[in-house]
Design brief:
By secondary structure, the chain is an alpha/beta fold. It contains 13 helices and 15 strands.
């Protein structure tokens, strides 16, 4: 198969979908790899490294798209890239379609086979291609939140850990999945008072087991969220329903009861955000205030640490990518059935139910289309 990889054009996105080592793996498996010149510079990989790995360097992104049967990316395509789609193209990347009708419609119109990292679910219900970025985003959420609590950034001027004789900051984490667990690790490590919420009591029991008396676990209910936010200095929203638009669990009216200068980090922003007042921001202007509450809503948080993020992501995506490239998507899905869960668009139809529900579109089971 002809495999392509282009530079991400999203603002301040330096991650790449393929490292030189990944390129070598595809080449050694018998595939042709085409990469855009300068592809990996933002993540610290040179053109020479890709060429030594056997990749073919191409000057323009358009030419890479045109050459490729399968495009490996990191972020969802932007409108400038929609004209580069072609029928039958396998697009292997994060898609986040539930919050993006224009992209969904463009994929359907071009009959692109959209393979979404974020919905691939293994037999144990884990999300292996979402996990590495969730881990990074969770850890960054506390790092960034701590920074924007500083007075010069509009925060209330609180140090998470405090010092002897002063109060520690109160951190509230809504969602106890991979993002929330990693946020919890860093917040506990920094010495904050940590409360973590989830709708799954078994997940709360697990978190209670691993963190013990260092955290407070609570069921995620409207009443508990509203109450906890009153005393919160830093709130991390990391609610996830795979493939579906994030539910709004932090309501606008809660903000008026929070401390002025408190910080909300909405990690669910890619899926529309779990805070009613969320809007997408970028690394060069990451925060805004609503009702005196600082909002950090960067849509590609792991892009702040592109070298770590690229290596972590591609460690996870390569194996599945090789299966698709070697067998073709249809045969790969039959051999490795968990791949069906990653197929969001196929043959001009939406093939992931939560995406269809979020957008009010028709849903078709992908297995019926691949027969």
């Amino acid at each position: 198969m002809r495999i392509g990889c282009v530079k991400e054009i999203k603002k301040q996105e330096y991650r790449v979908g393929m490292t030189p080592d990944n390129a070598r793996s595809y080449v050694e498996a018998g595939h042709d790899v085409y990469v855009e010149a300068g592809l990996g510079l933002g993540s610290g990989f040179t053109d020479e490294e890709y060429e030594r790995a056997g990749a073919r360097m191409i000057e323009t992104a358009r030419a890479v798209w045109d050459h490729s049967e399968m495009m490996v990316k990191v972020k969802e395509p932007l409108p400038e890239e929609y004209p580069l789609f072609h029928e039958g193209l396998i697009l292997y990347t994060y898609l986040h379609l539930a919050a993006d009708r224009p992209l969904t419609e463009a994929l359907l119109k071009s009959q692109v086979k959209g393979i979404a990292y974020e919905t691939l679910m293994e037999k144990n219900n884990s999300l292996p291609l979402l996990a590495p970025m969730s881990q990074i985003a969770g850890r960054l959420s506390i790092q960034e939140g701590a920074k924007y609590l500083e007075k010069m950034y509009g925060g209330e001027g609180v140090l998470l850990s405090g010092v002897p004789g002063t109060p520690k900051a109160n951190v509230v984490i809504i969602g106890g999945g991979s993002v929330g667990t990693n946020a919890c690790k860093i917040a506990v490590g920094m010495g904050a008072n940590v409360t973590i919420m989830d709708v799954n009591v078994q997940r709360l029991a697990y978190l209670d087991d691993i963190f013990g008396a260092r955290i407070q676990t609570l069921m995620s209910t409207d009443v508990n969220i509203e109450h906890a936010l009153k005393d919160a200095d830093l709130v991390v929203g990391c609610v996830l329903i795979p493939g579906k638009k994030a539910p709004k669990v932090i309501l606008r009216r809660y903000l008026k009861k929070m401390k002025p200068g408190a910080v909300i980090v909405d990690v669910a922003v890619d899926q529309g955000g779990c805070c009613e007042t969320t809007r997408v921001t970028y690394h060069d202007d990451p925060v805004f205030k609503v009702d005196d509450i600082v909002h950090y809503c960067v849509g590609n948080m792991p892009g702040a640490v592109p070298r770590t993020s690229t290596i972590a992501l591609t460690n996870a995506t390569l194996g599945y990518g090789l299966k698709i490239a070697s067998d073709g998507l249809e045969e790969a899905c039959k051999k490795t059935e968990v791949l069906y869960s990653a197929v969001n668009t196929y043959a001009g139809m939406v093939t992931y139910q939560n995406v269809a529900l979020s957008l009010g579109m028709d849903y078709v089971d992908v297995k019926s289309l691949m027969r």
